[in-house]
Specification:
This protein is mostly helical and 348 residues long. Among the domains are: 72 residues, Serine Threonine Protein Phosphatase 5, Tetratricopeptide repeat, CATH 1.25.40.10; 63 residues, Methane Monooxygenase Hydroxylase, Chain G, domain 1 (Up-down Bundle), CATH 1.20.58. The chain is built from 16 helices and no strands. Helix 10 packs parallel to helix 12 and helix 12 packs antiparallel against helix 13. The longest helix is centred in the N-terminal third of the chain and has 36 residues. It starts with 12 loop residues before the first helix and ends with a helix.
Length: 348
């Protein structure tokens, strides 16, 4: 808070008397100006309240898996915040817009929103927001198949995090740099970056970040053909995710373990893990994850040559896709089923 240096004067006796007996005369113009100022403040507050309400509505819509409606609400809120010049609120809205666009797969629009968020953070000298915005941009660039550009952006994020000694930002940036290097096939460098990232994530007691980095590390070990490293790392991610109630990373760790075990013929363990996955999806009442579980079952049965059971699970996955009204998934699954049946017929 800004502190003011106050200079105190000793009042003269005749001035005190004059104020007591001679009230200040206020003309009509002064009164009108005061009324206008009060009205302006009232209008601004109404605008803020309206924008805040739209922000909350957008949050509720996103939580209800309606990102398209959430984006509409946030854009309305953004327009109001812009009209009253509230930069901090605009930055928050751009964060939410970035997430909403990602959910819809509209990555270019997501990148534009997050770059605007970055610009506001730079104007405000908000280093923490700069770190996270740069990491989000770097991740989006990876999603769009631009790992080299991603590396540059993530390196800038790491430099800022180191400069301001932001441990959380260093852990996040190192983890994402590992991901970018893994996409470029630099597996050894990626593994070192992940291991460094884990040090920071443990220091900041960030179990979700730690499980995410471990899952990334497991994926890299798998790509590099290191079976023992893959199993151990995904296993650690699974334990941490279960303990912290992090269902996203728990499901991801199970998927990694299923792939690793099935790749070396440990099918019984893979099926046990798939049962865990399906049970978790049911507990969460998440139809999308149920669909993924059915598809994983189908692929595993197809891998061991049990085509009738694989067909059954593909059909169950297609049924769920219909319930979700996901036509793309339906077409993709039907195509996989058709290809499998052709392979099965050729084998007979």
């Amino acid at each position: 808070m800004k502190q003011w240096n106050l200079i105190h004067f000793s009042p003269l006796p005749f001035l005190v008397v004059s104020f007591i007996f001679h009230p200040i005369v206020v003309n009509g113009a002064d009164i009108t100006e005061q009324l206008h100022r009060q009205t302006d403040k009232s209008v601004v507050q109404q605008s803020i309240d309206q924008a805040d309400t739209l922000l909350r509505i957008g949050q509720q819509q996103q939580a209800s898996s309606r990102p398209d409606k959430a984006i509409e609400s946030w854009l309305q809120a953004l327009s109001i915040y812009h009209s009253i010049g509230d930069l901090n609120a605009q930055g928050l809205i751009y964060d939410y817009l970035g997430r909403g666009y990602v959910q819809l797969g509209r990555y270019k629009e997501a990148e534009d929103a997050i770059r605007r968020r970055l610009a506001i953070a730079r104007d405000n000298h908000d280093f923490q927001s700069q770190i996270f915005a740069l990491n989000n941009i770097g991740t989006l660039l990876l999603q769009q198949g631009e790992p080299t550009a991603s590396l540059q952006t993530l390196t800038e994020a790491l430099e800022i995090a180191r400069h301001v000694k932001n441990l959380e930002g260093q852990g996040l940036s190192l983890s994402n740099l590992g991901l970018a290097n893994a996409r470029l096939g630099n597996y050894n460098k990626a593994i070192k970056l992940y291991e460094n990232a884990l040090t920071f994530r443990r220091q900041t007691r960030d179990p979700i970040g730690e499980a995410n980095t471990l899952n990334n590390l497991g994926e890299t070990y798998l790509a590099a053909g290191d079976y023992q490293g893959t199993i151990g790392t995904y296993g650690s991610a699974l334990r941490i995710a279960k303990y912290s109630g992090d269902r996203v990373n728990e499901l991801r760790a199970i998927d990694g373990l299923v792939t690793a075990h099935s790749s070396v013929g440990r099918y019984e363990r893979a099926f046990d893990l798939l049962q865990q996955r399906f049970t978790l999806a049911q507990e969460l009442q998440n139809r999308q994850e149920e669909l993924k579980s059915f598809e994983s079952y189908a692929q595993l049965y197809e891998q061991i040559g049990n085509f009738p059971t694989a067909r059954n699970f593909y059909e169950r996955a297609i049924t769920v896709a219909k319930m979700l009204e996901d036509s793309k998934q339906q077409v993709r699954l039907l195509d996989r089923l058709t290809q499998m049946m052709r392979k099965a017929n050729l084998g007979n």
